[in-house]
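pasting input
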Amino acid sequence: MSDRLIRAIAADGGIRAVGTVTTTLTEEARVRHKLSYVATAALGQAMSSGLLLASNMKQQQSRVTIRIKGEGPLGGIFVDAGVDGTVRGYVEHPKVELPPNSQGDLDVKSAVGRYGYLHVMRDVGYGQPYYSTVELISGEVGSDVANYLATSEQTPSALLVGVFVDSEGVNASGGILLQILPKAVRDEALIELLESRVNKLSGFTRLLLSGKSLSEILEELLGDLGLIIFPQPKRVRFNCRCSFQRVLGALKLLGEAELQDMIEKDSGAEATCEFCGEVYQASSEELEGLIEDLRSQSV
Ligand SMILES: [Zn+2]
C-alpha cells in the first residue's frame, strides 16, 4: 500500500478517526539518515504522529513541529509535518542501537527515555504559532503525543503508531488517531468505549504488515458505530524544503571574513541539511560571489 492518510468520522460525528501509512517515507528517512533499527522506529513513529496531528488543521500551508527530548541515548527527535502531506525529521543520535525489550520489540521507550519533554508547535502560516510543552509520561511516542492532545489540547485521544523494520528495511509503518470531538467530550460512555476498542487493537502495525488496508482497520475498530470514511486519501511523503539557494543564504550570514577563510582553508564549503541529510557543496567561486553580494549591499 502506498503512503497515504485517510480521515473518517463515527458515532454521529462524536469520534474523529485518522489513519496513515508511512512505510515508504520512513524507509526514506532511514536511508537518508543511516538510522539504526531503534532510531528508525522512533523517528517513524514521530513522523506518523506529526502527520496525524497536522491532519485537523484547515489552511493548506499549516505545519506541526514535534520535538521530543527525553534523557535516553537517542537524544532529541525533531519532526516537521504539514497539512499538505509532507514530513521531514531527524534524531540527534541516529546510530544508537539497543537490545530488544522483554516482548522482543524495538525498545523505543528506553531509547527516548522516560523523563523529558514533548514540545509541539502549530503554525497556521500567519500570526503567532501556538506552542505547548508537556512532560513525557512514558517515552513511548504514541502515548506521549496522546497525553499531549488530552492535556494540552483538551481532546481525549488515542494514538497508535508503530514501525516494523529489519535488515531488509522498513516493512510497515503508520499510525491511527482516534479523538472524541467537543460535542461528545462529556460522553463518558463513548470515551470508555473508545478506550476499550483501542486496547483491543494492540497490534496496529501487525495488521498493516499482514496486508490490511487502513479502511479495513478502521472498519474493524469503528464499523458498528456508523463509520463514514471520507473519499480520496491524501498522499503523504518525505520532503524537505532545503535547497542550494537556502544554503547559500545561510552561508552569506557568516559574513565576509568567515567566507574568505573558507575559500583559503577549504577551497569552498560543505553544508549538510540536518532534516534530510542532503549534502551541499559551495565552490570558492560561489563563495566569492557571496562576498561580492555582501560588498555591493554594504555600499
Ligand atoms: Zn533538507
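fyi The radius of gyration is 21 Å.
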